[in-house]
Write a structure and sequence with these properties.
By secondary structure, this protein is of the alpha/beta class. The chain is 41% helix and 18% strand. The chain contains 6 helices and 6 strands. The strands form 2 sheets. A 4-stranded parallel β-sheet has the order 2-1-5-6, with helices on both faces. The chain has a two-stranded antiparallel sheet with strand order 3-4. Helix 2 packs across helix 4 (70-82).
Length: 174
């Protein structure tokens, strides 16, 4: 989605005002992007192309303030619809101010070193040299600093005999 004024309003209603009835609609929009990605990667076989869905974590302060992690909820919905396991693979190490109020360079600096893997990314079939394809969910892509830092951490946490491929899937792009 283009992050225009209407989409900003919808996301604000969902994230900050607790209008959970918007969740299935937002998830369906994200599902459309998932299906396009799946088609582009040529995954027309009986097994899902992706092995795991995860999401960008919130800082504990932000989670307490909001009551839920919107990216995690969208990830869980996709997981249920497509039968792909959903696992929390990342933790946010420190609270930062809202990224929407910052410059590109400030965002990049804030995100560096702000995430850690909660567990090693494991092989899907316990077979050596098996690539583990992960979908990383977030709500809005602005500079890419958050998704890039999360992807870096996930790749570094993958087992040497089971490298991770990370695919960002975002609800909107600003």
């Amino acid at each position: 989605m283009r992050y225009d004024s209407l989409m900003k309003d919808w996301l604000a209603l969902y994230k900050y005002r607790g209008h959970e009835k918007l969740e299935p609609v937002l998830a369906a929009m994200l599902a459309f992007a998932y299906e396009r990605l799946n088609d582009e990667l040529g995954s027309r076989n009986t097994y899902p192309f992706f092995h795991t869905i995860t999401s960008v974590p919130l800082a504990p302060e932000r989670l307490q303030e909001r009551g839920f992690n919107q990216a995690e909820r969208l990830a869980v919905q996709l997981s249920q619809w497509y039968g792909i396991r959903c696992r929390p693979l990342l933790a946010r190490l420190r609270h930062t101010e809202k990224q929407s109020l910052k410059t590109r360079q400030s965002r990049v600096n804030d995100m560096m070193g702000n995430f850690a893997a909660t567990s090693a990314v494991d092989s899907t079939d316990n077979l050596p040299n098996s690539v583990h394809r992960i979908i990383l969910i977030d709500d809005v892509y602005t500079t890419g600093s958050t998704i890039n830092e999360c992807a870096r951490v996930l790749k570094e946490s993958s087992a040497p005999d089971s490298p991770a491929e990370i695919y960002g899937l975002l609800w909107a792009r600003s």
